[in-house]
Design a protein that fits this description.
heterodimer, A: 74 residues, alpha+beta, two-stranded antiparallel ribbon, 3 helices, 16% strand, B: 196 residues, Beta Polymerase, domain 2, five-stranded mixed beta sheet, 7 helices, 7 strands
């Protein structure tokens, strides 16, 4: 899927209030909007949808979350 | 009502509300513009969010806004030589999980405005403080309490229902400090200096 497609979809979700974004440097970081009136139900629904997706869950779990020292080679 | 370069937020909000009503569009002023009016300008906002509470086509909105000289640019309506812009965020009118929001019609020096009540406006700012840890929103909520009539038990109920009872207490403490400061503006104790 092209980046512009993802950006367009996120923009629509942001307009509808389902997600909220902020800038971090040149990056837009999106998250589910906790102020959305059905935020808890939506979060639960998405969690349910991902239950059978073992491969996707494994890939998300493997994402690096710890910091990386500046200048350290990849 | 005509909008001029010198029209303030209240005048523009009332003019927009009137134009929408004339075109059969039901909308409620919310967000920062409400907070600005309830803090009597202590908090400044150029952004006017009207939540649509009835059906409205884009063409109807365009026509209503055009009567005041606003044109659509992306998702917002702008007007030359007016610093305020208008947006119509998707509804429903809600604060957190609470969708049972009763807007109020307030008489302003410029006319009638359909908007969030001071209590709901305060709750709206508190929601930003709770979810984003935004201290500016906490400050604005305190200003609203100081300058408008807020029903604190309703605010507490909403906060408790959303799981933010402790943060509501933090807000109350901040409001109390602000009240003490305004009563005794010169009496600030310097840290480390003994009381005399």
């Amino acid at each position: 899927m092209p980046l512009s497609g993802v950006q367009g979809a996120l923009r629509g979700l942001e307009l509808d209030g389902l997600v909220a974004a902020r800038s971090l440097g040149r990056t837009r970081v999106f998250q589910l909007n906790p102020r959305y009136f059905a935020s808890a139900a939506l979060s639960e629904f998405l969690r349910r949808l991902v239950e059978p997706e073992a491969d996707l869950r494994d890939r998300v779990a493997a994402l690096r979350r710890r910091p990386r020292r500046t200048g350290k080679p990849l | 009502m005509r909008i001029t370069e010198r029209s303030g937020l209240g005048a523009v909000a009332v003019a927009v509300g009137d134009a929408l009503r004339r075109h059969g569009i039901r909308a409620v002023l919310s967000g920062g513009a409400c907070a600005s009016l309830y803090t009597r300008g202590a908090f400044q906002s150029a952004d006017m969010d009207f939540i649509l509470t009835g059906p409205a086509k884009q063409s109807q909105l365009d026509a209503a806004m055009a009567t005041l000289g606003f044109t659509r640019k992306g998702d917002r309506y702008v007007r030359p030589r007016t610093r305020f812009y208008v947006e119509f965020p998707r509804g429903p009118l809600a604060i957190g999980n609470d969708t049972d929001i009763r807007p109020v019609t307030r008489r302003t020096p410029h006319g009638l405005a359909v908007m969030l009540s001071p209590t709901d406006s305060c709750r709206d700012r508190l929601a930003a403080f709770y979810h984003w840890n935004d201290r500016q929103s906490l400050q604005v909520a305190v200003w609203i309490v100081r300058r408008s009539q807020v029903h604190l038990p309703a605010g507490r109920r909403g906060s408790v229902a959303e799981g933010f009872a402790d943060r509501f207490e933090e807000f109350l403490a901040e409001a109390k400090r602000a009240r003490a400061r305004s009563k005794h503006p010169g009496r600030r104790r310097v840290a480390g200096r003994p009381r005399t």
